[in-house]
């Protein structure tokens, strides 16, 4: 979809995925604790939802906590979990006011029970919204997602719902947490790191990758437009010869 943004015609990606990285370094630069950086990161997350909606992006998927992030100190993990508690509750009203539908992807197992409850509530209470479809990856790891999908498929083969010949790329995609969502067109990673850190390995197969040195709490509308501009310069070939 083409859209005029400040006098410039831009092709807007339908689905944007974001690895929100750099909260710790943002805080360190200010001689503040890492969890202060995460709190500022949560504010930047609220802003990017509004900004994606304004630009006409239909799907936004963000990486908030990986299956590997449990390796961090108890203090940091507790701080992040407390932020999720507040964020998930506050998001109900904010999302409904913005007509935003929220889904949580990742492994529910291993998360505190009250957080899982809040995730389910947020999904249920925003399920009728028709605006931005917003996916938050919490306790998400791409390899874990693939293993969980394989387990569900083998269960369905065992109970006779499927035969192995039914398994193709489309069926497999429908067993992933992102079932029904188109693959991301554009992946953004902040903070200068240029790796995917186990985020959406299946779904990013043909996405364009945009890396920026901006630290996540500083990522604003201008940063998002810059990423979309980069996306506009790419020629997507999907294996074809042009
Ligand atoms: C990203 O910021 C947030 C999470 C991984 C939860 P970091 O906490 O990884 O920030 P840096 O990379 O240490 O700066
Ligand atoms: C990726 O960032 C995970 C999230 C942004 C939630 P990390 O900071 O955990 O990734 P690495 O350790 O630098 O690869
Ligand atoms: Mg990091």
What's the quick description here?
Helix content is 42%, strand content 17%. It is an alpha/beta fold. The strands form two sheets. The protein has a six-stranded parallel β-sheet with strand order 5-6-4-3-7-8, with helices on both faces. A two-stranded antiparallel ribbon has the order 1-2.
Structure description:
This protein has 242 residues and is an alpha/beta fold. The chain is 42% helix and 17% strand. The chain has helices spanning 23-29, 34-55, 74-97, 113-126, 142-158, 169-173, 221-233; strands at residues 2-5, 8-11, 15-19, 59-66, 101-105, 133-140, 186-189, 208-211. Helix 4 links the parallel strand 5 and strand 6. Helix 3 runs parallel beside helix 4 (113-126). It is globular. The model has no long low-confidence stretch (mean pLDDT 97). Bound molecules: 3-methylbut-3-enyl trihydrogen diphosphate (IPE) (2 copies) and magnesium ion. The site of one 3-methylbut-3-enyl trihydrogen diphosphate has 10 residues, from helix 1.
Protein traits:
242 residues, 17% strand, alpha/beta, binds 3-methylbut-3-enyl trihydrogen diphosphate, 7 helices, six-stranded parallel β-sheet, binds magnesium ion, two-stranded antiparallel sheet, 42% helix
